Amino acid sequence: MNVADSFRVAAALEELGFSPTNLPDQADVIVLNTCVVRESAEQKAIGRLTSLKSLKTKNPDLVISLMGCMVGVHDSSNLRKRYPYVDVFSQPSDPGPLINHLHGKNINAIQYRQISDILDTQYAYTLPITKENELISAFLPIVFGCSHACSYCIIPLRRGKEISRPPQEILADATALVDRGVKEITLLGQIVDRYGHDQPGYPTLDVLMRQMHELEGLQRIRFLTSHPNWMTDKILDAVAELPKVMPYFELPNQAGDDQVLKDMRRGYTIDQYIRMIEKIRSRLDIVSIATDIIVGFPGESASQFERSVDLLKTVRPDMTHVARYSPRPGTYSAQKMVDDVPPEEKMRRFRIIEKLQEQITTEINQKYLYTTVPVLFEGRSKERWRGRTPTNKLVFIENDKNLLGKIIDVTITWSGPWSMIGEAKPILSNK
Ligand code: SAH
User: Cys-Cys crosslink for 10: which of 59, 128, 200, 245, Cβ 3.0 to 4.6 Å?
Assistant: First the structure.
């Protein structure tokens, strides 16, 4: 979501006549887009922000904008006091304050378009010019904010309440992205399968995907992150029936123990989660599933943690994003629960999950050996082309042709836990 938000700001700045630079001390404007989902992310953002101070001292004309979840949707007066060298504070996803600020300042060498044009397109997610015909896979937020309030999660506090975007805006953005060379769009929401539920009259995710499926030139559609309670049969039908919708689910579980899940306020039991996974796998022949696990949630005992291990052994997801719990300001768990699992123990649990998942993924990926899968190529890494299978597996191949944005059948010749290597099959046409 932050990547999409950053592109949105970059594109708005281009509208104002700015162009990108990799050198911070040559920049007229620096936007720091921030994530605070875990304490480590916030520390990183603070470190970066602090390092910008000396640039501002050297060049007082530099405009520094702090954006995203560090700012949040509520009162930012404390931040303003703490970081007086920041010129603009912007909520997540909103380029408005920065654009207004720059318009108010008369920076030379900027050819302003009508400011109203830009603010009209404020909700357009688009690509910066530098990414046109280069970025093959783009992110497109369809639900802002979140109203679920998991007890550990700061996102609802910083991104505000859940608001689905109007379908016509989403389709317009998607069309524009495809016009700029994008072949794959990943629809984003904190609970993406809730799309439309907050707005009477809006389509649901399955209907939206059916509408997007009609877009000529768009090759692949993905969506994340899903919550098990909102995954409907209709969404599964859409994934099964629509060739452009990729069979890949990000379905965080978070913990393997019912009491911990309850304390997390996830709203489902382990049994319900497992049944949902079984349902997805019985509906779709080919599918991959990723999950998230938090280790060391307040009160999680060693034996409760073992149930997360058991769960992974039962579910055998393709991927687990594992995180060590950190208390986040303003959340229920930070205020009412004791962060009682010591850091070393969190690390021990983290490593166990990591190692187990590596083994599971290695085994799953081995089944791809000598099979042929359609890979969409997104770019090059060193001498090789890099792409993804429908199930979101990373594949590298060596090839002299320009494969950027092409879908090629690839026979897998090597597989590891994080990627695969293959050969193009059949022989490519020269198109
Ligand atoms: N809305 C999505 C993603 C939320 S953020 C969802 O509900 O699944 C991505 C991941 O960060 C979460 O899935 C969770 O595993 C992790 N996370 C969130 N808050 C955390 C915290 N306080 N400490 C550690 N990990 C956290």
Answer: 128
pLDDT at 384 over 90: yes
Length of the chain (residues): 431
Residue of minimum CA distance from atom 5 in ligand 1 = 37
Question: Please, which residues have CB within 8 angstroms of residue 45's CB and are 6 or more apart in sequence?
Answer: 32, 34, 35, 36, 70
Residue bearing the bigger pLDDT, 132 or 431: 132
Residue nearest to atom 8 of ligand 1 (CA): 252
Ranges of H-type helices in 105-249: 115-120, 155-159, 167-179, 205-213, 233-241
Per-residue model confidence (pLDDT) at position 109: 37
Q: Is the CB of 339 under 6 A from ligand 1?
A: no
Q: Is CATH 2.40.50.140 the classification given to domain 372-424?
A: yes
User: Quick check: 120 pLDDT over 70?
Assistant: no
Residue nearest to atom 11 of ligand 1 (CA): 37
Instruction: Considering the chain, tell me which residue range(s) the CATH 3.80.30.20 domain(s) occupy.
Output: 129-366
Check whether 430 has a pLDDT greater than 60. no
Q: pLDDT tens digits for 54-70? A: 999 999 999 999 999 99
Q: Is the C-beta atom of 325 inside 6 A of ligand 1?
A: yes
Does CATH number 3.90.1070.10 belong to domain 2-120? no
